[in-house]
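ARCHIVE CARD
Drawer: 12
Card no.: 0347
Subject: one protein chain, sequence and derived structure
Cross-reference: see card 0346
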Amino acid sequence: MKVVVDAFGGDYAPDEVVEGAILAAKENKDLKVVLVGDESKIKNILNGRTQQIEIVNASEVITNDDTPTVAIRQKKDSSLARAFDVLKDQEDVVGLVSAGSTGAVLAGAIMKIGRIKGISRPALCPILPTIKPDKTVIICDSGANVDCKSEHLLHFAIMASAYSSIVNGIEKPAVALLNNGAEEHKGNELTKSTYPLMKTIPVNFVGNIEARDAMLGEVDVIVADGFAGNVLLKTVEGVASGMGKMLEKEAKKNIFTMLGALMMKKFKGIRNKMDVNKYGGAPFLGCKKIVVKTHGTAKRDVIRNTILQVVKLHENKLIEKIESMVGQMTESAND
């Protein structure tokens, strides 16, 4: 199988992206990575390390300053647009990875790959750690769709449930609806109208969840409109980053705090657990093929993890699981 990679997307492209692709190929001997971008620059970085690596030349780059839909249409020879062409046209290419513009990745996924039949909108689904060992939680959506209807949230629940079953190995992931209260009658018009409908679809719906409980590890999936989901995601990231800086500052105050900091190094596993990059990227669920957006600051290890994440999702038939669950929902609605 092959995974296509936008070699010029991200803050550290192309060097770190190419190196990450090499690491992924070394780890999985059945994998070929297609790197898309300036061929001469990619070859210079590869320096002869071409085993399991293919190159597709592209002369342009889409930046965060470009308008996403316009860039996909007009920059047809950009590394991202050409990567989507490879994904669409080559059957053995199972997924795409990019650390570039989130908006452009979403636009390309919709315009060039298209949605799974029955899915109203693709959704961005990152993974967050929780306080429970080896337990994570998926947020769906986290920014792709800021204005939603109940139908969209139902589809998010189905897609994220299928995704969670693969990532966490859970047969029936616990799915909750992000709200400002746990009670069924709480919320705005969207969440109040969605709550009863969540009980009718083929997921393990467990009710509402408040943002403060997101990382307790009590649920596997949190469903939200993209605006609320993005606020939750950015808040968690900001608190984690802020706490780290506060502890570092306090540790330098005097000899006693410095000694305490040295002792705290024994708990470095906490920092590792809070590192969301080790989980790979965030897939745009709902596309006909696997599309994963990783962080713009991703370096080689994150790129490797994201490429291998695509392989895992393909091998565990993510697209087929979503299609099956959508079919079940449609049959249930017709009965």
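Annotation on reverse: Residues 226-251 form the longest helix (26 residues). Residues 125 and 140 are 5 Å apart (CA to CA).
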